[in-house]
Amino acid sequence: EGILKDGVNFSVTLPQQTTDIATFDLNKESSTVSITVVGASGDLAKKKIFPALFALYYEGCLPKHFTVFGYARSKMTDAELRTMVSKTLTCRIDKRENCDEKMDQFLERCFYHPGQYDSEENFLELDKKLKVHEGGRVANRLFYLSIPPNIFIDAVKCASTSASSANGWTRVIVEKPFGRDSESSAALTRSLKQYLDEDQIFRIDHYLGKELVENLSVLRFSNLIFEPLWSRQYIRNVQFIFAEDFGTEGRGGYFDNYGIIRDIMQNHLLQILALFAMETPVSLDAEDIRNEKVKVLRSMRPLRLDDVVTGQYKSHTRGGVKYPAYTDDKTVPNDSLTPTFAAAALFIDNARWDGVPFLMKAGKALHDRRAEIRVQFRHVPGNLYNKNFGTDLDLATNELVIRVQPDEAIYLKINNKVPGLGMRLDRSNLNLLYAARYSKEIPDAYERLLLDAIEGERRLFIRSDELDAAWSLFTPVLKQLEEKKIVPEYYPYGSRGPVGSHYLAARYNVRWG
Ligand code: NDP
Ligand code: BG6
């Protein structure tokens, strides 16, 4: 591509799919895509899936011929589904524009079929309706399982036996949780594979669809300056932080069965860690990337109980407002020990990362909402300025921060001379703030992932061996926490979380960013 001038866009073509889709033009007059949202009456469907589909439609990313079907047990007509969906559609992409017309066009393509998740007969009825809309074209079918995990298999069985495509592809997006531990996850995979091939299964981790997570590989592998520093030689520790400033809010029933380690760490944070720490893949092909992720996950030491701190939020009154405790949720038992906060120290036993602590921290009902990666570099050997000016060693080290959300940004903390006649240093940021640099709205993670599933791009979906490796790291410690009934450290709603996380970090000479 030659020399890239500042501010000039250039694009990279990702490798051709090795699947049927490569030769399959989705915009062909003779083909169509039917997207069925199973569990269409639910929270995720309303909040994320329908709005993402609309955004893709608005951007012209959906194929020429497509229909969206909602499927759930609730009784609803097509018109009622459209009313329900219309409430959560927004003109997110161009706020100045009135997108009513586009919304109406999109809603006209949305239909509903009520049915049980374990009824082949109901799925056959759906199949008949889909066929009518497909109008004899090559029919590609995508099922999005937006339902609780205990009914995944029933729905997959019925969809694959009664409603799979006769002449195109059939793909199924499966939402987390993918089991509760190694055994249940393996059982889920075995059951799914009774009805689907691995390449039909799209296990979604929506953090992989976030802009800055996707950018991680670009940052590492397309800039000369980062990759040489990306090892134990220069990096002192890496932190993966997830914080929410609200509690489990309406999802207590689900959450209490899983807890923060399964809800956030074993998937979202570990996936980011794998992309951060993997070796350079052979190519950008999905299998090459996933091979490298599996390798790095397999090089990790299973997490030890000593290296975990858990917490649970308790009620707190601030400014006359009483914020609830986790156990105030009516769907959560009063004596629940489920962690709503956890901090952990993980290690990768390979040549690149030997001895470097990878710290994770995830919590609900904390004082702020953010997701970020912090890379703390080592001290400058024999740093002249430390000697001469007594700079605090810890403050003087470089730090690279990748802020996934909110206010997406990448910034590098450097030491700089404060302008003036004297010699005083301060810490300044080289700051790439997305909102200042790019005018275009950042797509929601679900948009990217839905589009990838339609296009057959598997790079951002989890392969079963990755999932096995991820569970192997966390299953032993989860079992110990539960068998030993470890009591979480209570922290007030809206605080910075348990102080134990600071002791854990200090044990490895780390200060949380
Ligand atoms: P909901 O609890 O809202 O369930 C979705 C739909 O499934 C409901 O509308 C209901 O439809 C049906 N359903 C619910 N419980 C049962 C049951 N016990 N038996 C049979 N059907 C049931 O789930 P969400 O929409 O919140 O989540 C869907 C999936 O996505 C889950 O696997 C969840 O873990 C995952 N997820 C959700 C996120 C979120 O923010 N909500 C975030 C990340 C993942 P009906 O009664 O009409 O059949
Ligand atoms: C989900 C978790 O996977 O991610 C939720 O189940 C969490 O507990 C959510 O709130 C966070 O996603 P986001 O995109 O809002 O940061």
Secondary structure layout:
Blueprint: E1 31-38, H1 43-58, E2 66-72, H2 78-86, H3 100-108, E3 110-114, H4 120-134, E4 138-145, H5 152-162, E5 170-174, H6 182-195, E6 201-204, H7 211-221, E7 235-243, H8 252-277, H9 286-298, E8 308-314, E9 316-318, E10 321-323, E11 341-346, E12 358-363, E13 370-377, H10 384-389, E14 399-405, E15 409-417, E16 425-433, H11 434-437, H12 445-455, E17 461-462, H13 464-483, E18 489-492, H14 500-507
Parallel strand pairs: 1-2, 1-4, 2-3, 4-5, 5-6, 7-12, 8-18
Antiparallel strand pairs: 6-17, 7-13, 8-11, 9-10, 11-12, 13-14, 14-15, 15-16
Bound molecules: NADPH dihydro-nicotinamide-adenine-dinucleotide phosphate and 6-O-phosphono-beta-D-glucopyranose (BG6).
